[in-house]
Amino acid sequence: MAGEKACKHTFIVEHLDPELEEWQALEYKTIHQECEDSNSQFILSGLTDPDNAHKRLGLPMTSLQQQGVEKMYPTPEARRRVCLLDPKGEKDICPEDGEEFDAFLFGGILGDDPPRDRTGELRSKGFVGRRLGPEQMTTDTAARVTRIVVQQGKRLDEIPYVDRPDIQLPAADGESAPNPNESVSMPFKYVKGEDGKPVMPEGMVKLLVDDMDKGIDDLLTLRQVASSRPSKDYDDLRRHIYEYASSVEQST
After folding, report:
1. How many CB atoms lie within 10 A of CB 90?
2. Which end of the chain is more exposed for a tag (fewer CB within 10 A), N or C?
3. What's the DSSP call for residue 75?
4. Where do the structural domains in the chain lie, given as residue ranges?
5. What is the DSSP-derived secondary structure letter of residue 158?
6. Residue 48 · residue 18 · CB < 8 Å
């Protein structure tokens, strides 16, 4: 990408969860692609089953490791060259950190809302911390912001963001056009794309729709609505549940 430094960094996500959820898979594939595009390396470490992750993610085995980051960098000297992106870090990340560190380490749980201090599991291993700001970010956003800072030389306050966006979902009938009555409020901070929209992994909106559909369909099945109402009433009720779910998320 134009304007990026020629130096190569390693971006490591220490996968701290026993399962590999679909939303995590989308984020990890996005990080890998953006690392590849910027001449950087991506490593997903701490995996319970790298072979299964390879099948799920389609990433090269060289990017998938069972060993934890503490074994990858076993000495204090080695760990001083690894930056842990940590809400409780010593200071904010800055462009100069691109020269100070060779690798940037993320816990694969940055997308929790409310945030949990599970990054402390990595902090306790002696890695130097840097902050990305007080707002909660998804893991791919954290990696993206870090890359923009250390490779493009921008400071955190120079990056355009979208904070807690409302994502318009496709219409209930499966059409690609967004339905103004169906949206979900995302409790995270994203980089703003050139189109003014939050930069998200490809397929994430579809996953949101599928998850919401599953929850709504389960609710409708439990209440035996689908079998007892005409199709138009079913669609109207489905839309109202979408609106109710969105209003609850926005009020919490």
Report:
1. 9
2. C
3. S
4. 9-163, 211-250
5. G
6. yes
Q: What is the pLDDT of residues 217-235, one digit of tens each?
A: 443 343 333 333 343 443 4
What values do phi and psi take at 43, rounded to 5? -130, 130
Can you give the pLDDT at residue 126? 85
Report the C-alpha gap between 200 and 150 in whole angstroms: 20
Handedness of CA 5, 9, 15, 19 (dihedral sign): positive
Task: Name the residue among 17, 54, 31, 24 with its Cα closest to residue 204.
Answer: 24
Residue 103, beta-bridge partner list: 10, 82
For residues 86 and 98, give the distance between their C-alpha atoms in angstroms, rounded to a whole number: 16
Give the H or E element holding residue 191.
strand 189-191
Classify strands 178-185 and 166-170 as parallel, antiparallel or unpaired.
antiparallel
The topology (CATH level 3) of 9-163 is: Alpha/beta knot (3.40.1280)
**pTM exceeds cut of 0.90:** no
CA distance 213 to 156: 36
Token reading at 70:
């503490």
CB atoms within 10 A of CB 106: 25
DSSP state of 157: G
Q: Identify the DSSP state of 223.
A: T
Give the separation between CA 3 and CA 153, rounded to whole angstroms.
8
Q: What is the mean pLDDT of the chain?
A: 80
CB 245, CB 212: distance < 8 Å:
yes
Amino acid identity, residue 65? Q
Which residue in this structure is represented by tokens 């389960």? 218
CA distance 83 to 106: 9
pLDDT of amino acid 233: 40
Q: Exposed, middle or buried, 102 (CB in 10 Å: 0-12/13-18/19+)?
A: middle
- Single-letter amino acid code for the residue at 186: M
